[in-house]
Design brief:
267 residues, alpha/beta, Metallo-beta-lactamase, Chain A, seven-stranded mixed beta sheet, 8 helices, globular, binds zinc ion
């Protein structure tokens, strides 16, 4: 299984997941052109994608979706309640996106990848986290949530690669430039994860089988990649886990992380 985070921040989210002969795009927050450019930078072609899976309707996750879906003519998987919220814009005659809806909490398969969806606490209509399984390997994408409830922890058990939100430093947020209402929104139980909450998850709940932990969806106003790296490293150190840590950069795609069975696990 191979995963690359093409973008992860408050201004655009998209992740590439490849296993067996199946290639998925998770969220489409970049423009069609930028998505193609970043796929090309990791040696992939947008035309080879089999499907797009969407976590929720916020624009940083769907801004490029109408253009990509029209252009690539591949199925788009959305939750039943999220699907009606997408503005597909002008459609040429006969060019309708192929929308496949799922019930949040259900599982389905796309090609060779088994996908599980689960509800996350966020101020969207029906937001989901996602796990991807192929031949005993499991990857997960969990961003945009105000806290980490038990059902999310449950779904993250046995995850070998995890893209997890580490959105803001609480002190930076409090003294930062956002208006008070927005600060409250970000801090709320339907907002975004702070660095400290993410560190607590690493210390207490990150599965010992995790090979790669990518922290993402960093706020560009209320966080620093170096701070995220430092806090997470301390938490990983507390646990003594052999996990590889990466912090997603907003402006460029990550390297391609390759997962291998039996590697990185101390049991
Ligand atoms: Zn977001
Ligand atoms: Zn969101």
């Amino acid at each position: 299984m191979r995963v690359s985070v093409l973008a992860s921040s408050s201004s655009g989210n998209s992740t590439f997941v490849h296993a067996g002969g199946t290639r998925l795009l998770v969220d489409a927050g970049l423009s069609g052109k930028e998505t193609k450019a970043r796929l090309a930078a990791i040696g992939e072609e947008a035309s080879q994608l089999d499907a797009i899976v969407i976590t929720h309707e916020h624009s940083d996750h769907v801004a490029g979706l109408p253009a990509l879906a029209k252009n690539l003519r591949i199925p788009v998987y959305l939750s039943r309640l999220t699907a009606p919220l997408i503005d597909w814009g002008e459609m040429k005659r006969g060019v309708q996106p192929r929308v496949e809806t799922f019930q949040a909490g259900s599982a389905f398969r796309v090609g060779e990848i088994e996908i599980e969806t689960f509800t996350i606490p966020h101020d969207a209509v029906d937001p989901v986290g996602l796990t991807f399984r192929h031949e005993g390997l499991k990857a997960a994408v969990v961003t945009d949530l105000g806290y980490i409830p038990e059902n999310v922890k449950f779904h993250l058990r046995g995850t070998h690669l995890l893209l997890l939100e580490s959105n803001h430093d609480l002190d930076m947020l409090k003294v930062g430039p956002y208006p008070w209402a927005l600060k409250q929104r970000v801090m709320s139980r339907k907002g975004h994860l702070s660095n400290d909450v993410t560190a607590q998850f690493i210390e207490h709940d990150l599965d010992a089988c995790a090979q790669t932990l990518i922290l993402g969806h960093l706020s560009e106003n209320n966080n620093y990649p170096a701070l995220v790296d430092l806090i997470a490293r301390q938490a990983i150190g507390q646990r003594g886990l052999p996990v590889r840590l990466a912090v997603a950069e907003p402006g460029r795609q990550s390297e391609v992380f390759t997962l291998e069975r039996g590697a990185g696990s101390a049991g």
